[in-house]
Write a structure and sequence with these properties.
Layout lengths: L9 H16 L2 H9 L3 H19 L4 H8 L3 H9 L3 H14 L6 H33 L1
Helix pairs in contact: 1-3, 1-6, 3-4, 3-5, 3-6, 4-5, 5-6
Length: about 140
């Protein structure tokens, strides 16, 4: 499954949001900031809001729509999306790294695709078992 940098569906927005958040959280400078910060929870929350805001902005949602959906002010959303906040700047940098292929999040996206394939294979296996039992019953 590929990451869409201009998502259309809610699922694509969610995928981009998760990739932005995880990609940002695992950057060296962010890990150091979280480790040394006395307000870790506030810092991580800001990153989550910035990632959610940017993903929705890339989907074409307005600041007003994003603010309503995320329960934040339009001003906060605009600041995050423009990169005027530290969290917004870091998430925007992560977006560019992802877009340029300098940060690989395939492992994250593969999880959803893999579990879907496993479920399909389970269903197919059950069908094969059922048919085999039918054939054995006729013999």
């Amino acid at each position: 499954m590929r990451l869409n940098f201009n998502p259309i569906s809610r699922e694509e927005i969610h995928r981009l949001e998760v990739a932005l958040l995880i990609g940002t959280l695992f950057r060296k400078e962010v890990l150091e900031e979280i480790r040394s910060s006395s307000e870790r929870l506030t810092w991580v929350d800001s990153l989550a809001v910035a990632a959610a805001a940017l993903a929705r902005a890339k989907a074409g949602m307005t600041a007003s729509e994003i603010a309503e959906e995320l329960g934040r002010t339009e001003s906060t959303i605009r600041e995050h999306v423009k990169g005027d906040t530290k969290a917004g700047r870091l998430v925007n940098e992560t977006y560019e790294l992802l877009k340029e292929g300098k940060l690989n999040m395939d492992w994250l996206l593969a999880g959803e695709e893999t579990s879907s394939k496993v479920e399909t294979l389970k269903r197919e296996l059950e069908e094969v078992k059922r048919r085999l039992e039918e054939i054995l019953g006729k013999l």
